[in-house]
Amino acid sequence: MPRDVEDRVRGDRNGQTPPHASLGERVMLGKMIREGIEPPVFLEPDILMEGAVHWLFGSSESGKTWIGLWLVKNRIEAGDRVLYFDKENGPEIIGERLELLGCDPEAIDAHLVYRLEPDIQLDGATMEAYADLLDTEDPALVVFDASRGFLTSAGLEENSNDDLDKFYEAVLKPVRNRKRTPLVLDHIPHDGDHARGAGRKKDLADVMWKVECPVPFDQDRVGMVKLKRRKGRRGALPETVVFSIGGGDAGFVLARSAGTVENEDRNGLTDSQRKVLDRIRENEPRGATWKELLEALNGAKSTLSRATNDLTRWNHITKRNRRYHIVGPVEPESSEDTPNADGSTRFQKGSTEPLEPGKSGHGSKGSTTRRGGTLEPFAGTAAGRLSVEDAGAEMKRPHSGARLNLPLYLKGETNLEILARSVLVALGKAPDEAERASCLAVVQEAANDPDNHPLDCECEGCA
Fold this sequence. Notes:
Helix content is 37%, strand content 15%. The chain is an alpha/beta fold and 463 residues long.
């Protein structure tokens, strides 16, 4: 082995700073391959990846700003911070569109940092202030609307590849290096099929989408907007993503069109999500690696990425030491709960935490989910008597912990106490010792009612 390589390896093994450390961190690629290289984490399924530079370009009135604001709205409702630099539309247009999209004004002010007409120069003082803003706000998503205005402010030419490199290094790369997601909105030449200016834009982007509007829309008619993938550095992205957009009698709509999302089963899970859960459960208590889950889905990386992201967000699975585990009744360590300051009950390791109450569990309005965090139990009601109707409704709510635990309880794979906790925490109830027995009886009665069971239930009452 060459001496310099030997010294470097020896330094790595001894935990010392190896020679030539300034030339970059050594990464054990062989170990990564053996354990299974995971695809990027999606900030928005099929569209945005965490820590990747995104370029969204389209002609005037193609819908690119609408799509950008739809992505912003989703981050706001997930409880993430968003930084929006606007050099094109102005606060009135942005505000009106967020209102039409149904974004709550208080949530906007709490989570959106909107900066009008920023003058981002590449001098030291401005770059220091920019870095401080990124560190202070810690945004999940940073939007630049639109690219030409930022280049002009910085004294850079849109048609110069060298100037685009300077913009990337000074403005976009700091966001990317923080594992956050920059999104650049851009225009195209008339009748063009690429972003305006130098071709280096595509080289610098990790993900590039072209926005098209094959069916026109406005506030009185619904049309179609289509994203076409022009680049996906790490794959795992569909070729197209289609949206329905526009207004009508029922108000304004902007939503993913049918055909891009798997159908859900009677338990509110897709076939892929169910396969992932089944494989992890088979491998407990040691858990399942990414590679093992990939085998369960026949090598479909993008499908597995969406499934693990959703199941993690819904608190059905968790990841520890590069292995996925069920957040459920797998050899519970204790049946005792520790009350929170608000009087609600947290789950111990090995039990199932319910999701934040909401209609779908998919980052609904009012969610407090933070990127990389866990869902906190809902504490919207005080301790009190639990009704059979409330318990049954929680067992039927899509993606709730109770809905996931009920089939396990009916099959004898978990106990009544765990099922009861998943109901009580979701409803914000913290019964005292005197109420405990009656709450267990109520949950048991609701669990025994076939009307609350999944349609594919095979228990005696449903057979």
